[in-house]
Write a structure and sequence with these properties.
Catalytic activity: (2R,3S)-3-isopropylmalate + NAD(+) = 4-methyl-2-oxopentanoate + CO2 + NADH
Function: Catalyzes the oxidation of 3-carboxy-2-hydroxy-4-methylpentanoate (3-isopropylmalate) to 3-carboxy-4-methyl-2-oxopentanoate. The product decarboxylates to 4-methyl-2 oxopentanoate.
EC number: 1.1.1.85
Pathway: Amino-acid biosynthesis; L-leucine biosynthesis; L-leucine from 3-methyl-2-oxobutanoate: step 3/4
Bound molecules: nicotinamide-adenine-dinucleotide, 3-isopropylmalic acid, manganese (II) ion
Enzyme class: oxidoreductase
Largest sheet: 10 strands, mixed
Number of helices: 12
CATH architecture of the largest domain: 3-Layer(aba) Sandwich
CATH topology of the largest domain: Isopropylmalate Dehydrogenase
């Protein structure tokens, strides 16, 4: 009998490469903590289009429904970029899964590790002040999901439209996620919006203020998205939890990843109100480096840690992974994108990094 059943959806590009490493780490924690996992692998994204004619085949969805949680790699790539939007892997599989399971609360923790400030492309004195931010991104509404969207008209009069739409309830539940998280961290929520222009942002501010009343010990500040993008480079140490709508959180989280040194370091958890979740690197399928064995597997490995912590409550196993990752990085077991060009000959491969993390746990 297994303790847990996981749906493993590796996807496209570097997805399968980094997933191999997460599975090594899962095997190590499974041994160490005497946990039994049943892993069921399913096609998703471009590979599923190639093999089954659709990005999210019914068997994949059913497998996810039957699982305790989903470990997701990444999807998409040039091969499928010219399909109609609604058939593309990003929309037909990733957004479809987020919507289907109502995974509204997307947590993306980014930090500069102590002693590893040199990974950051920021000026040394700025990086030295530290950076430890949790981006809380609304994931199932806003301009990604708002209706109507479409393309109408002809010639130069042809026009495209997307709808940004938020209900009070949608804003409230993601704001609560942010305040709950802040209460366990440094007690500050920075809500990112464009309230000087967007009606959605006006409502966002109003509801966020209401939620703040229930968390008197947490400080709330509002900031416009353009200023936030700038402040993150000027002094990222000023932030704790950054609460964002769907599109703004997408953009800000890539920026946060790069402040720490690499897209390949940022994990994510996408959780619904029952605690069911999908866990995936915040970055994509990285077609530019896929197939070379050089992708950083840390974001995938840390996504596994978040799965254990948030969906399975296996805190000791999650802590062991986090500790092993920190030691791997500080021992200098690094993929090339974290190194300066002069040091790149010391780069380790995807599998060397995964082996090292797994060996530290064993
Ligand atoms: P990307 O995140 O795939 O890559 C951006 C840059 O970051 C690239 O230079 C890439 O090499 C680098 N990078 C990303 N992950 C890395 C890792 N683990 N190690 C080292 N470097 C890493 O973004 P993109 O190029 O805009 O998108 C490529 C494809 O991925 C597109 O089809 C996009 O829609 C899709 N995508 C999917 C997801 C997902 O599945 N969750 C997320 C983002 C983008
Ligand atoms: C992410 C990705 C996705 C998003 C894309 C692939 C649809 O960029 O998870 O950040 O925009 O949410
Ligand atoms: Mn993104």
């Amino acid at each position: 009998m297994s303790d847990y059943k996981l749906a493993v959806l590796a996807g496209d590009g570097i997805g399968p490469e980094v997933m191999v490493e997460a599975k090594k780490v899962l095997a190590a924690v499974s041994n160490k903590f005497d946990l039994k996992f049943e892993l069921n692998e399913y096609d998703v994204g471009g590979i599923a289009i190639d093999n089954h004619g659709q990005a999210l085949p019914p068997a994949t969805l059913k497998g996810c429904e039957d699982a305790d949680a989903i470990l997701f790699g990444s999807i998409g790539g040039p091969k499928w970029d010219n399909l109609p939007l609604e058939q593309r892997p990003e929309r037909a599989a990733l957004l479809a899964l987020r919507g289907h399971f109502d995974l509204f609360s997307n947590l993306r923790p980014a930090k500069i590790y102590k002693g590893l400030e040199n990974f950051s492309p920021l000026r040394a004195d700025i990086a030295a002040k530290g950076f430890d931010v949790l981006v809380v991104r609304e994931l199932t509404s806003g301009i990604y999901f708002g209706q109507p969207k479409g393309l109408e008209g002809e010639g130069e009069e042809e026009f495209a439209f997307d709808t940004m739409r938020y209900t009070r309830a949608e804003i409230r539940r993601i704001a609560i996620s942010a305040f709950e998280a802040a209460q366990k961290r440094n007690k500050k929520v920075t809500s990112v919006d464009k309230a000087n222009v967007l009606v959605c942002s006006r409502l966002w501010r109003e509801v966020t203020e209401e939620v703040a009343q229930d968390y008197p010990e947490v400080e709330l500040e509002h900031i416009y998205i353009d200023n936030a993008a700038m402040q993150l480079i000027r002094d990222p140490s000023q932030y704790d939890v950054m609460l964002c709508s769907n599109l703004f959180g997408d953009i800000i989280s890539d920026e946060c990843a790069m402040i720490t040194g690499s897209m390949g370091l940022l994990p994510s958890a996408s959780i619904n109100s029952d605690g069911y979740g999908m866990y995936e690197p915040a970055g994509g399928s990285a077609p530019d480096i896929a197939g070379k064995g050089i992708a950083n597997p840390i974001a995938q490995i840390l996504s596994l840690s978040m799965l254990l912590r948030f969906s399975l409550n296996e805190v000791a196993a999650a802590d062991a992974i986090d500790t092993a990752v920190t030691k791997t990085l500080s021992d200098g077991i690094l993929t090339g994108e974290l190194l300066t060009p002069e040091n790149r000959d010391q780069a380790k491969s995807t599998s060397q990094v995964g082996d090292y993390v797994a060996s530290l746990i064993a």
